[in-house]
Design brief:
Elements (H helix, E strand, L loop, with lengths): L1 H84 L8 H25 L4 E2 L20 E12 L1 H11 L7 E2 L3 E4 L4 E11 L36 E2 L33
Antiparallel strand pairs: 1-2, 2-5, 3-5, 4-5, 4-6
Length: about 270
């Protein structure tokens, strides 16, 4: 009987010891391990957030690098267009700028347009005429100056006309816009279009709009000089020429009315 009680006492003692170990282990888990797990989880989350910031910065730096490279390319394109397709119009000296426009209107532009059409592979059916130059230096706009060359008609076999529109027109000697083209007749076909030229003065500040006046639409940046996108053929074709320049504004206030399709003779280049 004494042996049985001793054996039972040992089993109870073992059970009590096992329970005590479990209690200690649970206590250690909640007192030591669980806080460490929470701390580790918080640190892991912070690490992920930090890594996301690092990744975003790396991507932002890559985007900045590409943007700078693109800026350099676009500045080179703009410099090329300013050198080959524009004239210097510096509004710091408006009298000098007006004389430059007089020379462009009366002596240079008409000859350049005539030479362009002579070497374009099409036959120009009407004379080249340039609208009169401005007479008031203060009327020269500080953002965009336009010259309307009016309506032109050219005739050519249909393949030659397509070649003219796709390959020759992007080489026009000035930044130009053809808002629409009308093509009529069987080959050889006749194409009619209006031609507007754009110039970008420097050294002037745009006048602030009156209070309550709506803001003027911004002029998108000039891109490359791709061929003119065309619509259905041989119907109506629309698209920008000379680097995708959009149609913006009219002739500046105070300047003579641009030449239309029926402008009288006498305004041609000399």
């Amino acid at each position: 009987m004494i042996t049985r009680l001793e054996r039972l006492t040992k089993q109870q003692a073992l059970l009590v010891g096992l329970v005590a170990i479990i209690i200690i282990a649970v206590a250690m888990f909640f007192l030591l391990v669980r806080p460490r797990q929470k701390t580790l989880s918080a640190l892991q989350k912070e690490l992920q957030q930090t890594q996301q910031i690092v990744d975003q910065r790396a991507q932002a730096e890559e985007n900045l690098k590409r943007a700078k490279e693109e800026k350099v390319k676009e500045e080179a394109k703009l410099a090329y267009y300013e050198k080959t397709k524009m004239i210097p119009i510096d509004l710091k000296d408006r009298m000098k700028a007006m004389f430059a426009l007089w020379t462009e209107h009366n002596k240079v532009l008409g000859k350049k347009v005539e030479d362009f059409f002579k070497n374009s592979g099409v036959i120009l059916l009407n004379p080249v005429q340039v609208s009169p130059p401005p007479t008031d230096p203060s009327a020269i706009p500080s953002d965009i100056y336009t010259i309307s060359l009016g309506n032109y008609q050219v005739m050519a076999p249909f393949p030659a006309l397509l070649d003219f529109l796709r390959k020759k027109m992007p080489n026009f000697p000035r930044v130009a816009l053809l808002p629409s083209i009308s093509i009529n007749g069987p080959s050889p076909v006749t194409a009619s279009f209006n031609l507007t030229l754009y110039y970008f003065p420097k050294g002037g500040e745009a006048a602030a709009p009156p209070a309550g006046a709506p803001a003027a639409a911004g002029m998108p940046g000039m891109g490359g000089m791709p061929g003119m996108p065309m619509g259905s053929m041989p119907g109506m074709m629309k698209g920008p020429m000379g680097g995708g320049m959009p149609m913006v504004g009219n002739m500046p206030a105070g300047t003579p009315t641009p030449m239309g399709a029926n402008m009288p003779m006498g305004g041609g280049a000399r």
